[in-house]
Design a protein that fits this description.
Layout: E1 19-20, E2 22-24, E3 27-29, E4 36-40, E5 47-52, H1 56-74, H2 78-94, H3 96-107, H4 111-135, E6 139-144, E7 147-155, E8 158-162, H5 168-182, E9 185-189, H6 196-205, E10 214-216, E11 231-234, H7 244-254, E12 269-273, H8 277-289, H9 309-324, E13 328-331, E14 335-336, E15 339-340, E16 343-346, H10 352-355, E17 362-368, H11 371-378, E18 387-390, H12 394-403, E19 409-411, E20 428-436
Parallel strand pairs: 1-5, 8-9, 9-10, 11-12, 11-18, 12-17, 16-17, 18-19
Antiparallel strand pairs: 2-3, 4-5, 6-7, 7-20, 13-16, 14-15
Length: about 450
Amino acid sequence: MTQYAAPGQPGSVVAYRPRYDHFIGGEHVPPVSGDYVENVTPVTGEVFTEVARGTDADRARALHSASGAARAWGRTTARERATVLVEIADRVEEHADELAVAETWDNGKPVREALVSDVPMIIEQFRQFAAVIRTEVGAVEQVGTDTADYRSHQPIGVVQRRLGWAFPLLHTARVLAPALAAGNAVVLEPALQTPASIHVLMDVIADLLPPGVVNVITGSDDHPVVAGRCPNIFFSDVTSQRDSFLDKALEGFAMFAANQGEVPTAPSRALIQTAGYEELLHLATERTRQLRTGDPLDTDTMVGAVVSLAQRDRVLAYVERGKAEGARLVTGGEASGHYVQPTIFEGDHRSGVFSDDVLGPVVSVTRFDDRDDAVKIANEATAQLGAGVWSRDLVLAHHVGAELRAERVWVNNYHAYPANTAVLAEYRRVKHLLVSYSDRAQGYF
């Protein structure tokens, strides 16, 4: 166990400033309005810093700065940009503990999750896109006897993104890495609930980037995270043996509480086959009760604080709604401050508590009879950003996964992520240079 000192306390690896202005053109710039917003940590519920209140005037200033920087950054070579991305990855790795604690203090997630998952994925994002652009080449195609099409990738210019509060630093990296790799300048607007950790990141990496290439406007409107009712399907053969596979499946069930359930792909619907229903639900309930909720700065903590009191209230209202609808509360359902116990409901898949989501540590469990029934129930949700399938029969699991509407399906795991280098296409355009080698007129006029 490692217990990190809270920011502001002796021995803390993070030192927040009392106040953060906007970050525009490589400098900290006060808001045009002169207004600031208090930033509250969900870990203790206390104000720990304040950030500039963003307005359209601040946004326009940031966009102007980015537009000027984009021209020069876009003319750099892929090798030059790749070198900067690798330097950013190295710098993040050097400051891993600092950034993990900053993420925890801002968002409320367990520091163990930030250390084991978030920060390593941030590092990987920058290294991955550096490798992609370093090895890319253009293309040439002959489109006529005397004409060739030279195709190359060019930046779109300025990328403006509003960030959600579930993964403030990881979401930042998932924008910055491809956007910078493509040669764009960026304007980021972090969520009102979690703006401070991004300023910590900028303090770490700002000197590696030309002024204006990355700009940060804080304190603008609330940025809600879109939820998806993601099904997690467990076939009866999961419990046929008491082995490591069963343990892995139970861990997959408990993923609904990871990051306090504040993840669009959290498996907030559990579908368990009738033949093994009672046994698996019992084992899953016991595993859920073993999840340690507590101080997020303790590396033994598994479930931290909900990001805000407003979000906590939404979760508690959802729990009360489930009770009113007749769903059975299997475990959890209580809260203290920003902390909500991991909660399991059992009920009819047609009820509101099963069809709706709230982005909290809550899972709704129901039964299914066979493969077709599982697919039918799972696909009732229109917003499936992810889904899980658990079975010792990989042929069955593969076919079920193929039939689900989810954008991403995990089979016998619920945590691996694809490379996503294809996202680079969103941040640039293809330039066609059509060159004629003939000195003869075409005869059109």
